[in-house]
Batch of 2 targets.
Target 1
Amino acid sequence: MPVIQVSGLTKAFRTYKKQPGFLGAVRGLVSRRYDTTHAVRDVSFYVEEGEFVGFLGPNGAGKTTTLKMLSGLLHPTGGTASVLGYTPWERKDGYRRQFALLLGQKNQLWWDLPARESLALNAKIYGIAQSQFERTVAELSELLSVREKLDVMVRELSLGERMKLELIAALLHQPKVLFLDEPTIGLDVVSQKIVRDFLREHNATRKTTILLTSHYMADIQELCQRVIIVDRGSIFFDGRLSEVIDRFADFKLITIRLTPAASPAAGCDRQKLESYGEVVEQTAATAKLKVKRDRVIPVCKALLDELPVSDIDIEEVPIEEIIRQLFAR
Ligand SMILES: Nc1ncnc2c1ncn2[C@@H]1O[C@H](COP(=O)(O)OP(=O)(O)O)[C@@H](O)[C@H]1O
Ligand SMILES: [Mg+2]
């Protein structure tokens, strides 16, 4: 049975529109004017045990709202969800002990305590035995290379160090399901890689089911077998990342290398190149062209026939760019 089952999940926020001035305030008492934001609309998906799913979407798409509902922090306006057999917003103790939510933009640790004590407080809240606590902290702090930071005040830690400790705090009770909302946001590249490697290993060895949102495609590409793309509250795509390329990449990149003897006079000036496709890069001896998928074969043929080409290479547009274009439209 799937670990996470979401069906028709919907969340509308009513925010209330203040009317200007004193009269507006008085009128507001009589007839309140509301704005409705449909943050999540009719979202349905299943996640099996051990899956590592990337949740993608532009800002405001409803990712955080979905994760908050699955963590029981928010009640939905409609629909159902079941995680490990629990309805998250019923906030049963049994559920609380089996999942964790990490919000990259928020802090769960106490700032005025050394990291280790802050973690110990978290452990107390979950009723974790001292021996398990010590074992887990030793192991995870080693893997995340923050062992020597455990006695530093949380407020004195760098963002990356703090995030790693947040991650340790989230894993102290060995949750079966993990919701990670932008866990690598703002981290330096070294910390990003450490966190990424750690998560991959954790998912592989513990079979933890993970739902991850990230602005960094590297996270998604390296970790997630499956991506769910949301846009304006609705699911727009659910499948493998490679399918996103097949379905949404309209272009390919063709790189040509010209024979050393070929000079611009040999007919390879910018204007000539532009007639084959959009020139995205050009050096003395090479040019990279962006060409519509269905034009790739005729364009390659024409390039070989008409220019002194010594080598030719065809590649996909980077997934990062495809996603950017998807979000832009
Ligand atoms: N507490 C709230 N009250 C009103 N609107 C909200 C609240 N939380 C989120 N929203 C709105 O819901 C939409 C989805 O937000 P969010 O789930 O944070 O998106 P994402 O995480 O994908 O960037 C946005 O339009 C946001 O402004
Ligand atoms: Mg968000």
Target 2
Amino acid sequence: MTIRIETERLILRPIDPGDADAHIEMMGDADVASFLTANKTPDSRADRWRQFASYLGHWQMRGFGWFSALDKESGEWLGRVGPWMPEGWPGLECGWSIKREHWGKGYAPEAAIASIKWTFEKFPELSRIISVIDPDNQNSQAVARKIGEENSGEIYDYWGFKLEVWAAERNSWLERFA
Ligand SMILES: CC(C)(COP(=O)(O)OP(=O)(O)OC[C@H]1O[C@@H](n2cnc3c(N)ncnc32)[C@H](O)[C@@H]1OP(=O)(O)O)[C@@H](O)C(=O)NCCC(=O)NCCS
């Protein structure tokens, strides 16, 4: 089954091997990597390749995973957004990362709202969606607020960081965004 989600400005579709270079390049940017890696700086290119391969594997193992967000008009690869839940994760997350030159255009919230709708439709029993966010990551918290998530007060320990769990409850979220 082909998955393709259209928003006002974006096309979302599952990441595929052809996105590897764009993703590896995005994760090589120091600003993008600062809240996404264990030492807060970009991983080596070889590690970024392995990371991307694991994201493809997540789709195979879970039947869902990151979407590539593409500019509807130009086809440019803008970033990755969508559902994600590796082993041990504190819940089904909607995550987001956008190429540095495209920050501030509202792409992450636009893609996240469409992704969450898709996720709630796919999992009718899912009672809430979460986002795991570093307390210093102001940009990501801004996205979480825009898409109707609140800081749940729960903390998730990862790589020695105390990350905050933001969350939205299914019914109230669907009333607001569906
Ligand atoms: C978090 C992120 C995905 C936001 O994406 P986005 O498409 O820029 O989202 P928005 O346009 O809604 O902007 C979100 C906030 O970023 C900040 N921002 C906006 N433009 C910016 C710019 N040019 N440079 C830096 N920050 C900017 C603003 O605080 C904005 O909030 P506001 O609209 O309330 O002022 C993006 O910053 C990113 O990829 N960061 C690195 C990866 C990451 O940390 N991901 C989240 C892990 S939990």
